[in-house]
Amino acid sequence: MTFRLAPLQRGDLARCAELETLVFPDDDPWRESAFQSELDAGYEYFGAYTDEAGLVGYAGVSVLGVKGNAEASVHNIAVDPAWQGKGIGRALLRALLARADEVAAPVYLEVRTDNEAAIGLYEAHGFTRIGMRRRYYWPSGADAYTMARPAQAAEEAP
């Protein structure tokens, strides 16, 4: 199974919204307009593409500030359930981290406390839990951990 990462295209936003309903059905999945707003704001999104299925995953990050005084925030990562467990989420996360590492930015994110697979992935990439947000996800009311990864220069990144 092969896939490639590329900058997310505006033509893929309807598929992103479709994937949101598959991956996050209980937590107010983003609509196409939300992804449009993210791209309009200049946030960076990557898509994971296969020849067989087209877009099977996406991930987005905001990087604010300049090198030495920047901060990054992972906005979302989602992979079609039929394609999970094949390294796509890991590759998407690494693409986001590489972008943050270009400006040596610490990286922050929120993750559901019951999403053990995602928590394990983040911990394997240097994230630690720094807090909890009660009832963060709506409408499910699920809690989220806030996780952080210290800044790394691009040459130090794993």
UniProtKB/TrEMBL annotation:
Taxonomy of origin reads: Bacteria, Bacillati, Actinomycetota, Actinomycetes, Pseudonocardiales
**InterPro entries associated with the record:** AcTrfase_RimI/Ard1, Acyl_CoA_acyltransferase, GNAT_dom, YpeA/RimI_acetyltransf
Any idea where the N-acetyltransferase domain is?
A: 1-152
The family this protein is said to belong to = Belongs to the acetyltransferase family. RimI subfamily.
Q: Does the keyword Acyltransferase apply?
A: yes
Q: GO molecular function: any one? A: protein-N-terminal-alanine acetyltransferase activity
How is this protein named in the record?
Answer: Ribosomal-protein-alanine N-acetyltransferase
Q: Which UniProt keywords apply?
A: Acyltransferase, Cytoplasm, Transferase
Q: What is its EC number?
A: 2.3.1.267
Q: Which superkingdom is the protein from?
A: Bacteria
Q: What Pfam families does this protein's entry cite? A: Acetyltransf_1 (PF00583)
PANTHER family recorded: ACETYLTRANSFERASE, ACETYLTRANSFERASE YPEA
Q: What organism, scientifically named, is this protein from?
A: Actinophytocola algeriensis
What is the top EC class of this enzyme, as a single word? transferase
Question: What NCBIfam families has UniProt attached to this entry?
Answer: rimI (TIGR01575)
